[in-house]
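F.,

This is the one I mentioned.
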């Protein structure tokens, strides 16, 4: 059994910097389980970050290191899995180029996340400068009409719709096809991207009369939705996050600010735990969360006490993480791990790339 090759799992994450608890409970905790069960390749999708963030490029390298530090501190293990930076393994770009030769643009234009994200980027770019947006729209509207598009597609004609962004799924296909990924762990929202990877693999094989590329399957992992301190989804763009390694003082401050049941005014008022952010976190960090909820409902505990207990419980876990992170940071291990990971990833990727070049008639 030990000698049997485990199925390959590939997953990447954009370098968003320090992880927050939404990232941890939603995605990263799954990676911990996956590294024991599969032959895992986990990478920092730094080229992907440039597809939508070329104007914020100065943050990419630092964010990549910060994110990998968090990965290691949370227990992801370079002995069990391969960790690397996408841009350190050039075949990702080279295979993406080849795959681009067999990927119809219509598939990419049809990709639902492309248009949605583009709209978001477009609005974000002109946030607070509506006059500029109007001006840009005036120009692009003429263009749009000249090309027979409706006004909804204005963003498509803006300078944000760069080739790299449209081609995002092609690069993502290369990411997984290079390693013969059997599974890609994804949330349901990522399914269209994976479908494109499968379609591209099939089209490559068909075009070049080969069976070189394996179609990856989705691995639906469970995700725990974590609210931000204001009760909305935890997200950097909402400014409502708690970092996986949040500093003790600011953890306390953030918990104090957490949204609670507005009907519970006095400590002994009966409370409603559903929708209360403090209660949501007790569920994650307090083994006796049920008793805590009962105490809230019956007015035996007030929000202040409830928050104080939560602060202690969370600090216990987060404190351990912080110490491990600081130790890792001082050791300089991240650079070592990424360098060694790139060597291991390249060994596999170079071979696949050579075979792909051969299949495509280049060699
Ligand atoms: N699309 C992923 C994200 O937005 C990152 C990513 C890039 C990825 N390539 C991948 C995920 C390959 C899984 C497999 O975070």
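My design for it:
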């Amino acid at each position: 059994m030990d000698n049997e090759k485990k199925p390959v799992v590939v997953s990447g994450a954009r370098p968003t910097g320090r992880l927050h608890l939404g990232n941890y409970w939603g995605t990263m905790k799954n990676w911990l389980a996956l590294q024991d069960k599969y032959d895992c390749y986990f990478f920092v999708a730094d080229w992907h970050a440039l597809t939508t963030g070329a104007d914020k490029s100065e943050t990419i390298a630092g964010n990549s290191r910060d994110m990998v530090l968090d990965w290691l501190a949370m227990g992801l293990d370079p002995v069990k899995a391969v960790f690397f930076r996408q841009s350190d393994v050039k075949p990702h770009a080279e295979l993406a180029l080849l795959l681009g030769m067999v990927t119809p643009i219509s598939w990419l234009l049809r990709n639902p996340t492309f248009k949605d994200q583009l709209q978001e980027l477009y609005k974000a770019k002109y946030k607070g400068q509506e006059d500029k947006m109007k001006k840009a729209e005036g120009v692009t509207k003429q263009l749009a009409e000249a090309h027979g598009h409706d006004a909804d597609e204005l963003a498509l004609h803006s300078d944000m719709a760069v080739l790299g962004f449209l081609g995002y799924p092609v690069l993502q296909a290369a990411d997984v096809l290079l390693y013969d990924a059997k599974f890609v762990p994804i949330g349901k929202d990522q399914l269209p991207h994976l479908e494109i990877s499968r379609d591209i693999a099939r089209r490559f094989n068909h075009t070049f009369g080969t069976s070189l590329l394996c179609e990856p399957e989705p691995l639906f992992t469970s995700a725990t939705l974590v609210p931000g301190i204001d009760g909305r989804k935890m997200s950097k763009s909402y400014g409502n996050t708690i970092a996986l390694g949040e500093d003790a003082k600011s953890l306390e401050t953030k918990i104090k600010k957490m949204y609670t049941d507005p009907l519970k005014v006095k400590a002994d008022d009966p409370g409603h735990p559903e929708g209360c952010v403090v209660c949501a976190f007790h569920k994650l960090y307090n083994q006796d969360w049920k008793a805590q909820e009962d105490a809230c409902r019956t007015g035996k505990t007030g929000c202040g006490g409830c928050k104080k207990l939560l602060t202690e419980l969370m600090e216990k876990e987060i404190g351990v993480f912080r110490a491990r992170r600081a130790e890792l940071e001082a050791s300089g291990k991240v650079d070592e791990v990424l360098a060694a990971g790139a060597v291991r990833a390249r060994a596999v990727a170079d071979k696949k790339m050579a075979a792909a070049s051969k299949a495509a008639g280049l060699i």
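The chain has 15 helices and five strands.

Talk soon.
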